[in-house]
Design a protein that fits this description.
The chain is an all-alpha fold. It has four helices and no strands. The longest helix has 25 residues, at 77-101. Residues 19-35 have a biased composition (Basic and acidic residues).
Length: 138
């Protein structure tokens, strides 16, 4: 349900490839569970998937080593925040590996749109498309 009544015009038209959830004034955007599966960001060959899994496994191992090497500083807020950040990234990497095994890597967890190959290259454990990540962290 929309609570605002104003309308706005876009400076440039919305591309046809933009999912309904990301289009302005879309009342009937499909719910996440209503959308069918979409291909995973151009990663279709077994070799690509194996390479990505190996990369994620290496990143997971590095983060595990990093977490275990950090000391428990119960009164140091910076050290606590840093350790939590590393743990959060480790969890995201594990989720990405799980989604890769399920064939869902490259599909946004929020809108079910495509996570671009460029985004996956920059952030191999990305589970959100750029638009959804931007909304989440802004």
């Amino acid at each position: 349900m929309r609570t605002h009544t104003y309308q706005y015009k876009l400076a440039t038209p919305v591309p046809d490839s933009t999912p309904p959830e990301h289009r302005p004034n879309t009342e009937d955007a499909p719910l996440r569970h209503d959308l069918g599966p979409t291909p995973a960001a151009g990663r279709s060959t077994a070799a690509d998937i194996a390479e990505l899994d190996a990369t994620l496994a290496e990143l997971e191992s590095r983060r595990e080593d990093q977490v275990s090497s950090l000391h428990d500083a119960t009164h140091d807020p910076v050290a606590i925040a840093y350790k939590e950040s590393v743990r959060r990234i480790l969890g995201e990497i594990r989720l990405a590996r799980h989604r890769l095994r399920e064939g869902k890597h490259g599909v946004c967890v929020d809108c079910r749109g495509e996570v671009t190959a460029e985004r996956i290259e920059a952030l191999p454990w990305a589970t959100q498309c750029t638009d959804c990540a931007r909304r989440r962290y802004s």
